[in-house]
Specification:
The complex is a heterodimer of chains A (333) and B (766). Chain A is 27% helix and 20% strand. Chain A is α/β, with parallel strands linked by helices. In chain A, helix 4 crosses helix 5 and helix 6 packs antiparallel against helix 7. The longest helix of chain A is centred in the first third of the chain and has 15 residues. Chain B has 24 helices and 27 strands. In chain B, the strands form six sheets. An eight-stranded mixed sheet of chain B has the order 19-18-20-21-25-24-26-27, sandwiched between helices. In chain B, a hairpin with a 2-residue loop joins strand 22 and strand 23. The N terminus of chain B is likely disordered. Classes of the chains: A alpha/beta (333), B alpha/beta (766). Chains A and B meet through helix 1, strand 2, helix 8 and helix 9 of A and strand 1, strand 8, helix 9, helix 14 and helix 22 of B. Strand 2 of chain A pairs antiparallel with strand 8 of chain B.
Chain lengths: 333, 766
């Protein structure tokens, strides 16, 4: 006997979307959800992810859809209006990606340490249920990953996913590959389930349903250069990659810097600039001119390369970054 | 053929099946394991790679013994498969897009000389520009190859068609290779509820043993396979192939019916949905046909008599089934995920129209819409729009604005958008600062380079802009940044397919501040040869000022130097004025860490697993610098980022030779924290460890003379191979007792190459 889905769209599906960045394990979480629903809870369903090249740190979406066991899954297209939306990486909200397609019928679970009311404002959420949980913190404490905590929280938030079935699917998927980590993963899962607090917001007119942008790209067949040529050299400079950064950043101490250039030499993301100037001792030459944190992915190779302690590792911090970024774009941005 | 609804359960199942939740790729791999193919020749290409990976994972666990051969490119993979099929066993391959096109010339030989095998085509858009997502532009190239083509619309069908394919192709009246096409990503990577036979024996009993009718390995019956055959004979041989295809028309439904008995899943040649009284229909292939059913249900609710026709077999084309389903339909929209440019239809439009034309009384009005190119998603709303047009076509035509051929889902773009370059190109004055001094040593005739310190070199403008999408801690970009510090003046770069290319040019963004070309995975050597020689010829003709100087640099990963080895060697043997830079991260990291020929022995990758039956990569790493040196080019060097100014000096020497009309090759070891699983911040240390254990010696071969630039022994830095391997979790198993033999073998090879290198460095003849 299959569990009853609490609500479905007009095609008969209960749909789940996870918003994450490559490397956080949203893909695995989606697989576990799908397996538990279909193999242990008697539902029919599908699971897939948004695919690109195999890169860590790029935004990724994972999708699960469930339907009654006797219904065929016939659509292969992405989940646009999720019943359950899990946001594994908070800065995806700032980037405006995560909240697409939130309706008054969406339950949202967010990995964050911020209060729910702030998250609701950031999401522009019209109403419905929102749960905020410090998945990264719990994961660190339990030697697990945020995806496990979020999986537990999503189970709880869904109102119908069977906790034991999810536990079994976690053991099945991770127990064989990483036996030593299984207990920690299960603890993280359980804590996600038990520590999530869902808040109900009533619908207000200030926050309508979040629109969905299925619009085509701004460069199309009328204005696009022929053959797909890009005529704007080096325009990745216009990007801001900080939304996908995980955890750490280099902190700079001007007093300890000897302007050796080793940070610029080793940085894979070309965040460092040097310019002509005068150093501490009044000598003319190349001097450190700043870090453009928009490109920094937090690898900390620069901290390793730094011969003094001018560069040290610190926690990613929005305010620090905003204050200390030196833009490399000539026109500024 | 009656009008049927596709793959519904019928009859009693006679074999036990298990329910699972798996993707199309996983199901194809499972079928292969259960069939127990003799051999698989393959080369990784998205989105089909996972088939070989999954089969390898089962191999490592000792679940089967299919001989897995990772070729150095798809042309060779197809060649391996052909050779293996002539030797009398069952053979499998899987590929996509460029991989299919690169193997294309092999395919008519496979069918023409009548050796059955099975090829999974996980469909994907073909270049260029490069797109890794799913459409049918690759599949359309299959139509004329003489292969049977089965369509797999969902993961269940991917399994079922794979089980049935050998039975069809190996039938004595057929003896043809079979391709199975599933939609890249939509089917290959989407997990669905599926059923499979619990016992491998049931599958093997259904498929039966392989029957060799002709074999290259029966000395008691010598055969000449593939003779030289002109007119008047070839036409007769091809007529036999035609007859075999006709025989397949009879064989396929029989195999499908027998499979239905066993599995309870029935496949008609032509799948139809709600066509009983349909006045308008959509003809559409594979996964999109499933999505379109949702739209048809909606139309039916509104009282519109519409339906879907979708073939399960493309070759032989099921003409009778198409005619039967469509003869009474007033209007038909043929939706195709590939265009036959200039043909006023996709290929299948012609075939469907031709089938209908053969019905003298038929008056069906046909439209063609090209949709979903490059993997553009196909939503229910798209199907609704197409159905809407199909309905309109009953009594509207071109005069009413309803085009008979058009694209669906294209975007004109925003006319307000400013596409003008925002950053200035690098002025020559800024990139040619004269900071690097290259001189010929009058004593040796070889080069001497003076560079400023690291600090002063921050003055040299970066040829690559920030904002690229590489993983955190990627070694490619410090390598390229330091390399380009040694290059003064104008630069034109060519990247072969790989991480470096994908992360710098994701449309509409480019990280390249200088002109950049991407052609294909494997022929950068040839392509840049053409660029260089055109440039020189135009200079000779006075079309480009003769005093202008551009340095041409080809950048490739180690993958590109596997599949593109021949092209690079060709360019080297012709000695064009260019530099080839290889960043070697010891694997196909862009497609998710499959082994490359540069991967060290014993290393765990997704196509060289570790387990009770497999011990990582089974052969030694390729020594590409020595291979390049054997072409007798003027300059070969190895280097790594973070090793002082070593790399800058070598770049400067390479440029000196390139700009005097000679090819120079520089190989850079490049850390891949994602796949080596080493710490992101420790790239430089990992590189140093590789150098200190002599796995990756720093040396150069200039005008035939070998110089070791850094000798860990004399510097008292010599480290054990284990020190390096232990820094990378992908290799840690190599230092456990279980892998003692593999470790020793790798260590011996490293030592042998080091001693050979030292002997060469000490000699002025070697």
């Amino acid at each position: 006997m299959a569990v009853q889905l609490p609500r479905t769209n007009k095609s008969g599906f209960y749909e789940i979307r996870m918003e994450s960045v490559g490397g956080l394990g949203a893909n695995v979480a989606g697989k576990i959800l799908g397996e538990a629903g279909v193999l242990a809870m008697g539902l029919n369903g599908a699971n897939f992810a948004s695919y690109g090249a195999e890169k860590k740190g790029t935004p990724v979406k994972s999708f699960v859809r469930f339907c009654a066991p006797d219904q065929q899954v016939r659509t292969a297209s992405p989940v646009e209006f999720p019943h359950l939306l899990a946001i594994l990486h908070e800065s995806l909200i700032r980037a405006g990606i995560a909240q697409e397609g939130i309706t008054h019928d969406t339950t949202v679970v967010v990995n964050s340490t911020h209060p729910a009311e702030k998250i609701r404002q950031d999401l522009g959420m019209c109403g419905g249920a929102l749960g905020v949980i410090d998945a990264s913190g719990i994961a660190a404490a339990e030697k697990s990953r945020a995806n496990m905590v979020m999986l537990g929280a999503m189970t709880r938030a869904s109102g119908f996913l069977d906790q034991q079935a999810i536990r079994d699917a976690v053991s099945e998927n991770l127990g064989h590959k990483y036996p030593k980590l299984l207990q920690g993963n299960l603890r993280a899962l359980d804590r996600g389930f038990s520590e999530l607090e869902l808040q109900q917001f009533s619908c207000d007119l200030e926050h309508p349903d979040q629109p969905l942008r299925r619009a085509g790209p701004p460069i199309g067949y009328e204005n696009g250069p022929m053959g797909g040529t890009i005529v704007n050299p080096g325009n990745t400079m216009e990007k801001d990659l900080s939304a996908a950064r995980m955890g750490r950043i280099p902190l700079y101490d001007h007093d300890k810097c000897i302007n050796c250039g080793k940070c610029e030499y080793t940085c894979p993301d070309f965040c460092y600039t040097f310019t002509d100037g005068t150093d501490h001792k009044g000598r003319r030459g190349r001097i450190f001119a700043g870090i453009d944190y928009r490109y920094c992915k937090g690898c900390l190779r620069c901290v390793e390369a730094c011969p003094t302690e001018a560069l040290t590792a610190g926690d990613d911090n929005e305010e620090y970054v905003a204050e200390h970024t030196t833009s490399q774009m000539k026109a500024g941005s | 053929m009656g009008i049927q609804t596709g793959n519904v359960k019928i009859g009693a199942k006679t074999a036990t099946q298990k329910t699972d939740f798996k993707s199309g790729n996983e199901m194809a791999a499972l079928a292969a394991k259960q069939i127990y193919y003799h051999l698989m020749g393959f080369y990784p290409i998205t989105p089909s790679t996972e088939i070989a990976e999954t089969i390898d994972a089962m191999y490592a666990e000792g679940q089967h013994h299919i001989k897995m051969i990772p070729a150095e490119g798809e042309h060779s993979a197809a060649g391996i498969c052909y050779g293996a099929s002539t030797a009398g066993g069952r053979v499998l391959n899987a590929t996509s897009a460029q991989g299919l096109l690169y193997s294309l010339e092999q395919l008519p030989v496979q069918s023409g000389t009548r050796f059955p095998m099975v090829l999974n085509i996980v469909t994907r858009s073909i270049n260029g520009p490069l797109d890794i997502r799913g459409d049918h532009s690759d599949l359309m190239f299959m139509l004329n190859t003489g292969w049977i083509i089965l369509m797999a619309r969902d993961p269940q069908a991917a399994y079922d068609m794979n089980i049935m394919a050998p039975r069809i192709g190996e039938h004595e009246d057929v003896r043809l290779p079979v391709a199975i096409a599933m939609d890249g990503f939509f089917t290959s990577h989407q997990k669905r509820r599926v059923e499979y036979f619990e016992k491998d024996e049931d599958v093997r009993a259904f498929v039966g043993p392989y029957r060799e009718l002709q074999s290259a390995v029966t000395p008691e019956r010598p055969l000449t396979i593939g003779p030289y055959m002109n007119d008047p004979d070839l036409i007769n041989s091809k007529y036999q192939l035609h007859l075999a295809m006709e025989a397949a028309r009879e064989v396929i439904p029989r195999v499908f019916a027998e499979f239905a008995e066993l599995s309870g899943r029935s496949y008609p040649l032509v799948d139809s949905y709600r066509m009983e009284d349909a006045q308008s229909a959509l003809f559409i292939l594979n996964s999109a046909a499933e999505t379109a059913r949702e739209a048809v249900d909606g139309f039916r609710e509104k009282g519109e008599a519409v339906g879907i026709v979708s073939p399960n077999v493309l070759r032989p084309f099921p003409v009778a089934g198409i005619q039967e389903n469509l003869r009474a339909v007033s209007s038909l929209l043929i939706a195709e995920r590939a265009d036959c440019y200039g043909g006023n239809g996709g290929n299948l439009s012609f075939e469907v129209k031709a089938a209908l034309h053969d019905l003298p009384e038929n008056k069906t009005r046909c439209l063609t819409r090209i949709y979903g190119l490059g993997g553009r998603d196909f939503y229910v709303e798209d199907a609704e729009e197409l159905l809407e047009q199909a309905v309109r076509a009953r009594d509207e035509g071109e005069a009413d604005g309803l085009k008979s051929f058009d694209y669906h889902g294209v975007t004109p773009g925003d006319p307000q958008l400013d596409l003008e370059p925002r950053e200035e190109p690098i002025p020559e004055a800024e990139s040619a600062l004269g900071l690097i001094e290259v001189k010929v040593d009058p004593e040796t005739g070889r080069l001497k380079v003076k560079t400023p310190g690291v600090r002063e070199m921050t003055r040299i403008p970066r040829r690559i802009a920030p904002g690229h999408g590489a993983c955190p801690g990627c070694g490619i970009f410090p390598n390229l940044n330091q390399f380009f510090k040694g290059i003064e003046g104008h630069v034109v770069v060519l990247f072969q397919t790989g991480c470096g290319m994908v992360v710098t040019t994701a449309y509409p963004y480019s990280s390249h501040r200088v002109t950049y070309i991407h052609n294909l995975f494997q022929n950068g050597g040839a392509t840049l040869s053409g660029v260089v020689e055109m440039y020189r010829e135009r200079q000779r003709r006075g079309e480009i000022p003769s005093e202008q100087q551009i340095t041409f640099v080809m950048v490739s990963g180690d993958g590109g130097m596997d599949i593109g080895m021949g092209s690079a060697l060709g360019a080297a043997l012709r000695d064009h004025g260019m530099i080839i830079v290889e960043y070697d991260n010891e694997g196909y990291m862009n497609t998710g860490n499959q082994l490359s020929y540069s991967t060290p022995l014993g290393t765990r990758t997704t196509t060289s697993g570790i387990g009770p039956a497999e011990k990582g990569k089974s052969f030694q790493h390729k020594d590409m610098p020595q291979i390049m040196a054997a072409t007798d080019i003027k300059y070969v060097a190895t280097s790594v980022e973070g090793f002082g100014r070593d790399l800058v000096v070598k770049a400067a020497k390479a440029q000196w030779y390139a700009n005097r009309g000679h090819l120079a090759y520089v190989k850079l070891l490049s850390v891949c924290p994602l796949s080596w699983r080493s710490k992101e911040n420790l790239g430089t240390k990992v590189m140093r460890a590789a150098v200190d254990c002599n796995f990756f010696p720093l040396y150069e071969i200039e005008q035939g003379f070998t110089t070791i630039n850094y000798d860990p022994e004399t510097r008292k830095k010599k480290a054990a191979l284990a020190d390096w391997l232990n820094m990378m979790p992908r290799s840690r198993h190599m230092t456990t007792p279980e892998y003692a033999e593999e470790y020793r073998s790798l260590e011996d090879e490293v030592e042998r190459r080091w001693q050979r290198l030292k002997a060469r460095a000490e000699s002025d003849r070697l």
